[in-house]
Design a protein that fits this description.
There is one protein chain. By secondary structure, the protein is α+β, with helices and mostly antiparallel strands. Helices cover about 55% and strands about 10% of the residues. It is built from 20 helices and 10 strands. A 4-stranded mixed β-sheet has the order 2-1-4-5, with no helix packed on it. Strands 6-7-3-8 form a 4-stranded antiparallel β-sheet, sandwiched between helices. A two-stranded antiparallel sheet has the order 9-10. The N terminus is likely disordered.
Length: about 450
């Protein structure tokens, strides 16, 4: 991936060039040189390969990128160095939002993902040290958990009202000139600025037609998270100047105040600043003021017990979880129970790794109770006949329901969901049974995560 090597100097020129290199060896590399250094490009390549992701408009996959680069990088570098490189338009895809509607994503081709990743890696050390301490999204050694904990501290300090700001289609509405002016505050290298501008203006391919992008930075590109933080840093500074306690994670902003009156006043004044100064739009239907107990932050909520503010899992997050669990425990999914549990366990581990921050075990117990019932239903469907069900229940050691009353219950034409709640299946296929089958319960995973963090 190195830039082309220049030809050797003539003998009579060597003495002058040697003196020049001695002086120049102490020169700091330019930002452009840092971006396209071999070490930075290799790190970017490894990151792109690890992230995988869908192909762009050229259909090239991340597995094909490394061999393609080995053959074609000199040509790409020549275009970059000459300033003639043109990024390809991104491929537009839509994904459903958890609360309804669709989110537009832009998928760059893998070569452009590599170059953008290299640019982002070089720019992070330039910008990140100057970002606000209340900004937690897409930053090194910062996380959503830290944002939620910072919010809890603000609530514990008496800020019991929330201003929940929703920036309307933020990534689609960013003004290119305003964004580039903010990037240029800390980046003087005109070649880097020109390349970033070209990525912003690369366009979008939707249904085979290339649409020019006059504003916005496509979600899905390696550069967009950093650019969003650069754009919204002015908002952070304004909120600090006004003395507000707040948390920002990318374009999710929550301000904590002490009263309803302060919340109403803050929402109006901050909305005015965002729309007039940053040239962005606030979604007035979704932005709101409310007691902190009524809203959520990054999938979590807060509650008060014995004078202490605690963290809970938001109800909407539980609803989204149930959609996934229903898929893995569907009685019409014709797979073995071992395969079903393997898929479910992977989901449980990932979900609890994030939501294990919650302080109460109650929600995890309730989810486990419901999930085990879903599993009992799926198991009884696999057993099919009444005779098979009765045989398997006896085999599991439950003899009490072998009497006439239990036989009538199991033989009755009850729906499988109702049968899964009967006494015999509930006792025979209890939590110990599913644990022996390999099911990792939500509560067990939560308890282990709490032990690791204490």
């Amino acid at each position: 991936m190195d830039a082309p090597v220049h030809t050797a100097a003539k003998p009579e020129e060597r003495s002058d060039q040697t003196a020049h290199h001695r002086t120049d060896s102490h020169r700091e590399p330019s930002l452009w040189e840092t971006v396209f250094s071999k070490e930075n490009l290799l790190a970017a390549l490894r990151r792109v390969e690890a992230n995988r992701g869908a192909p762009g408009i050229d259909g090239m996959t991340t597995e094909e990128l490394r061999p393609w680069i080995a053959q074609n990088w000199p040509t790409v570098w020549a275009e970059l160095d000459a300033g003639t490189y043109r990024p390809a338009p991104v491929r537009r895809v839509t994904i459903p939002k958890p609360n309804g509607g669709e989110r537009m994503l832009g998928v760059p081709r893998v070569l452009d993902r590599l170059i953008q990743q290299a640019v982002a890696q070089a720019l992070v050390p330039v910008f990140d040290p100057h970002f606000s301490g209340a900004s937690f999204g897409f930053r090194p050694e910062r996380s959503a958990h830290q944002a939620v904990k910072a919010g809890r501290r603000a609530v514990q300090d008496g800020n019991r009202w929330a201003v929940d700001l929703d920036l309307d289609k933020f990534f689609d509405r960013v003004n290119h000139d305003a964004l580039m002016a903010r990037v240029a505050r800390r980046v003087e290298d005109k070649r880097v600025l020109k390349l970033i501008r070209r990525y912003l203006e690369a366009g979008i391919m939707a249904e085979g037609v290339i649409v020019a992008s006059e504003e916005g930075t496509p979600q899905g590109s390696p550069l967009s998270p950093l650019l969003s933080n650069i754009m919204l840093d002015d908002l952070d500074r304004e909120l600090f100047k006004r003395g507000h306690r707040f948390v920002r994670y990318a374009d999710d902003v929550m301000i904590f105040v002490r009263s309803e009156r302060a919340a109403t006043r803050t929402l109006a004044s901050v909305t005015d600043f965002i729309q007039k100064t940053l040239k962005l739009k606030v979604n007035k239907e979704k932005s709101k003021t409310c007691p902190i107990w009524w809203t959520s932050l990054l999938g979590f909520g807060y509650y008060l017990t014995k004078g202490q503010v605690k963290i809970r899992v938001d109800r909407k997050a539980v609803k989204r979880l149930k959609v996934t669990v229903r898929r893995y425990t569907s009685r019409t999914w014709g797979v073995s129970m071992d395969h079903r549990l393997d898929k479910l366990n992977r989901f449980v581990t990932g979900w609890v790794a994030y939501f294990g921050l919650a302080d109460s075990s109650k929600v995890f117990e309730e989810i486990d109770h419901w999930t085990r019932r879903r599993l009992r239903q799926a198991q009884m469907v696999q057993w099919k006949t009444f005779t098979r069900k009765r045989h398997m229940l006896r085999k599991l050691g439950y003899e009490a329901e072998a009497n006439e009353h239990g036989t009538i219950q199991l033989a009755a034409r009850k729906r499988y969901w109702r049968q899964s709640r009967l006494k015999a299946p509930s006792i025979a296929m209890n939590s110990a049974y599913w644990e022996s089958k390999g099911y990792r319960s939500f509560k067990t995973c939560w308890s282990r995560s709490r032990l690791r963090t204490t």
